[in-house]
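User: Some background: our group keeps a shared notebook of sequences we're curious about, and every so often someone picks one and asks for a predicted structure to add to the entry. Today it's my turn. The entry only has the sequence so far, pasted here. Could you supply the structure so I can complete it?
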Amino acid sequence: MLSDPIEIDVSPDDRVLVLEKERVVEFDYFGSYVRSVGEGILQGARGFAATEKGILVVSADQLWSFTREGALRWTIERRSLGPLAISQFSDVAPGSDALYILTSTRVLVVAAEP
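Assistant: Of course. Here's the predicted structure to add to the notebook entry:
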């Protein structure tokens, strides 16, 4: 079922999420497969976070936001952040009023998730 898992997280409603390079695999509380999120969209994922609104995933050059149901909500490309984002993205963490994107050289603070 899994192929080369990168990271694990648990959502606020106890869904177990496993990040792979091209998808997030969702399991229920008992470890039974539920679905995959981001297949055909994600490429080279590096980090992710489960939030009340859904799932955030980063690759070196992009941040994706998916709903709790797995639909793509929005994306942010690294180049759209201008000179702030000269380094590749590594991970993401949601805060109460901002998103924190870890790069290889700094932490970027981006306005709250829409």
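Suggested note for the entry: DSSP finds no helices and eleven strands in the chain. The longest strand covers residues 62-67.
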